[in-house]
């Protein structure tokens, strides 16, 4: 599984404006629905919120992977955003979160959904990769960095 | 009738056995009727007492004060051990304000009411101070009885408040009793004195908490059963020493327990269970004793005053003061109203009321009887409405139900790894996946699945369904990733 299969260059935002958790979820949903016009923004916010209610998807080190399941979807869709000043996402380590990878999966595809989540979280374990994304300024550069890191053996 | 040994001891143990057994057996029924179990224990005590069928003449206020204090130390220590740090983050500020300014405010308003009902000023204020602290255990016992879970912030605020507000009530009671005895006028020195007590108590508590952490993680005792002996010693020291040095022992015990409870140490789950049992034993004994101490015919004499002050406390003093205190924290109106309404009184006021009696302060007996009356009325009226009101105001938490079976590691050594319980919600990514499809990191592994009353072995083809409780073994460094995949961790 390659991340480039479900993260399109249009679904990237290099400078998130949101200052709190709920606003981040709204902004990420807006980006997702812009890249995939058939998806309703409100529904996306709803499924992401439902998952956050169980416990924050902020896995620490400034990374969060908000995700959810959307009935009617046929394949995985994703969006990526960078917050320059950081947002309190109730992350497990209590630190502010800068990198947001939103992932929405079809309803009956738990296996694929889990595989993608594990893949993304392992990718962002690399501190040099995280730093390079924070250094990049344009959405195109960030997308290229992710694709490149994902392609490494 | 003078009894000789061993007959006297045999009688004592028989009576205790009947009373304690009855308390334990009837507690479930009480919870179902919305009555705090504590009230049931008191009632059994009254039945066993001098005017009840038991006919036990017990009038030892000194013994009551001492045993009550020990019981409170045990209860506060257990409460502290079970208070997670995350609760502190959510509720510490409002709870701290309620436990200090709130207690003073409630004491003042109730004191004014008591004065209007005929008490002389100093006695009236003393009465207000005595009944000013709340007991969350009373609220939680009622909620547990009706199978409800309270929304997080409200529950945490109530619980922390009741852990923190006894010191202030104790300080005010001691100071006002002193003023009543010496005849000196009241002045602001009481507040200065209270501040010193709090600071010293908190400092001792932190000290004992960190010392306890260090001790528990370093020391290896010969037998598992000695660990609770050590923690009990710490609890007694954490109360005793600061009290000798102008500090609040109650605050110190609670703080020490919170500090200790938020660290993993060997034999932790075993220790928590022992302290839980000790806290229950303390509750049962304390309330039975208070019931034995009460003389129903004396209570009837103060019924009018008692009912009047109780109603003012429940309908005016507590709700008003709580709403004002919570204003800066922007609690929704219904939440602050709820906190104000369910501030049930527990044993602390009755134990505090023995203090002026012991000091032979004027009017102490009538204060004691009114306090007793207030505690009972207060537990009955707001107490009975708790389940209804919780549902009505929509404060029921949708937290998943606790598993019918639990798995835990018990060890006398510090372990590198833990078994973490999760709940599979429909919204969590694992719902519907087979274990073979679950890409857990490194050494993490699903050890057991509890589905309803059934234990499901964790094999590759096993599917995880919404509603399952899943136990995952993992190392601390892998916990974040496991959380991401599984979703909702259960409280232990």
TrEMBL record, chain A:
Main location: cytoplasm
Pfam families: PTS_EIIA_2 (PF00359)
Keywords, comma-separated and alphabetical: Transferase
Gene3D superfamilies, A to Z: Mannitol-specific EII, Chain A
Gene Ontology MF term list: transferase activity
Residues annotated as domain PTS EIIA type-2: 5-149
CC annotations in GO: cytoplasm
Transferase among keywords: yes
The keyword Transferase is annotated on this UniProt entry: yes
Localization terms from the record: Cytoplasm
CDD domains on file: PTS_IIA_fru
Entry protein name: PTS fructose transporter subunit IIA
Organism field: Archangium violaceum Cb vi76
Organism lineage: Bacteria, Pseudomonadati, Myxococcota, Myxococcia, Myxococcales
Automatic annotation (TrEMBL), chain B:
Keyword annotations from UniProtKB, A to Z: Antiport, Cell membrane, Ion transport, Membrane, Potassium, Potassium transport, Transmembrane, Transmembrane helix, Transport
Domain of life per record: Bacteria
Location within or outside the cell: Cell membrane
GO terms, molecular function: antiporter activity; monoatomic cation transmembrane transporter activity
PROSITE patterns: RCK_C
Bilayer-spanning residue ranges: 6-26, 33-57, 63-83, 95-118, 124-143, 188-209, 221-241, 277-296, 302-326, 338-359, 365-389
Membrane topology of this protein: Multi-pass membrane protein
RCK C-terminal domain location: 407-488
SUPFAM superfamilies the record matches: TrkA C-terminal domain-like (SSF116726)
GO process terms (BP): potassium ion transport; proton transmembrane transport
UniProt-listed Pfam families: Na_H_Exchanger, TrkA_C
Cellular component per GO, a single term: plasma membrane
Predominant location category: membrane
Keyword Zinc: no
Descriptive protein name: Sodium:proton exchanger
């Amino acid at each position: 599984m390659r991340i480039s299969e479900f993260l399109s260059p249009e679904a990237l935002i290099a400078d998130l404006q949101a200052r709190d958790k709920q606003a981040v979820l709204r902004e990420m949903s807006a980006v997702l629905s812009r890249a995939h016009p058939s998806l309703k923004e409100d529904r996306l916010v709803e499924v992401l919120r439902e998952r956050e209610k169980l416990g924050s998807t902020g896995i620490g080190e400034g990374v969060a992977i908000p995700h959810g399941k959307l009935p009617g979807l046929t394949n995985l869709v994703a969006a990526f955003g960078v917050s320059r000043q950081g947002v309190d996402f109730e992350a497990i380590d209590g630190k502010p979160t800068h990198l947001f990878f939103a992932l929405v999966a079809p309803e009956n595809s738990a296996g694929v959904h889990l595989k993608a989540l594990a893949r993304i979280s392992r990718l962002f374990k690399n501190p040099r990769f995280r730093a390079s994304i924070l250094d990049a300024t344009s959405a195109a550069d960030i997308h290229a960095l992710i694709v490149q890191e994902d392609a490494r053996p | 009738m003078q009894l000789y040994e061993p007959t006297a001891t045999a009688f004592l143990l028989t009576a205790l056995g009947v009373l304690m057994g009855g308390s334990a057996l009837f507690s479930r029924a009480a919870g179902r009727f919305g009555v705090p179990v504590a009230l049931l224990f008191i009632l059994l005590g009254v039945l066993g007492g001098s005017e009840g069928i038991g006919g036990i003449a017990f009038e030892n206020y000194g013994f009551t004060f001492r045993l009550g204090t020990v019981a409170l130390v045990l209860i506060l220590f257990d409460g502290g051990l079970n208070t997670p740090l995350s609760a502190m983050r959510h509720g510490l500020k409002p709870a701290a304000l309620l436990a200090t300014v709130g207690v003073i405010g409630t004491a003042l308003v109730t004191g004014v009411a008591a004065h209007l009902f005929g008490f002389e000023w100093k006695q009236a204020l003393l009465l207000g101070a005595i009944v000013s602290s709340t007991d969350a255990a009373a609220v939680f016992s009622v909620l547990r009885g009706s199978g409800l879970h309270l929304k997080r912030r409200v529950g945490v605020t109530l619980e922390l408040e009741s852990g923190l507000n006894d010191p202030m009530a104790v300080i005010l009671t001691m100071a006002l009793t002193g003023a009543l005895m010496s005849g000196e006028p009241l002045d602001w020195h009481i507040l200065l004195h209270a501040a010193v007590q709090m600071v010293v108590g908190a400092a001792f508590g932190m000290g004992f908490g960190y010392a306890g952490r260090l001790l528990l993680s370093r020391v290896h005792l010969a037998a598992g059963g000695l660990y609770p002996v050590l923690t009990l010693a710490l609890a007694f020291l954490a109360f005793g020493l600061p009290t000798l040095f102008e500090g609040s022992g109650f605050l110190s015990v609670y703080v020490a327990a919170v500090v200790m409870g938020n660290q993993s140490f060997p034999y932790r789950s075993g220790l928590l269970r022992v302290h839980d049992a000790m806290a229950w034993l303390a509750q049962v004994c304390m309330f039975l004793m208070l019931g034995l101490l009460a003389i129903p015919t004396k209570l009837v004499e103060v019924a009018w005053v008692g009912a009047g002050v109780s109603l003012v406390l429940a309908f005016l003093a507590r709700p008003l003061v709580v709403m004002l205190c919570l204003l800066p924290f922007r609690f929704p109106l219904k939440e602050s109203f709820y906190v104000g309404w369910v501030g049930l009184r527990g044993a602390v006021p009755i134990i505090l009321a023995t203090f002026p009696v012991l000091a032979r302060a004027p009017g102490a007996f009538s204060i004691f009887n009114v306090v007793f009356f207030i505690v009972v009325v207060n537990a009955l009226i707001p107490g009975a409405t708790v389940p209804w009101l919780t549902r009505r105001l929509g404060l029921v938490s949708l937290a998943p139900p606790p598993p019918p079976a639990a798995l835990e590691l018990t060890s006398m050594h510090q372990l590198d790894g833990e078994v973490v319980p999760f709940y599979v919600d429909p919204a969590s990514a694992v719902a519907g996946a087979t274990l073979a499809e679950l890409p857990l990191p490194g050494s993490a592994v699903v050890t057991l699945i509890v589905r309803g009353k059934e234990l499901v072995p964790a094999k590759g083809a096993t599917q995880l369904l919404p509603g399952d409780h899943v136990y995952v073994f993992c190392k601390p460094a892998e916990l974040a990733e496991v959380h991401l995949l599984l979703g909702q961790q259960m409280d232990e």
